[in-house]
Input
Amino acid sequence: MDNRVLCVGSFNWLSAHLDGQYARHETSYVYRGEQVESEIELIRKGLNLRGK
Output
């Protein structure tokens, strides 16, 4: 992990459809660049507030 890459996604296999069109369908996005550092810090602050 560094301050220039952010991957956001889900991993919901326990509640996902096991068959059909959307079976085990997961989507993630990768963000890159210098502006990602401020977004990572914002996410960290939000997570820290939840832990209090």
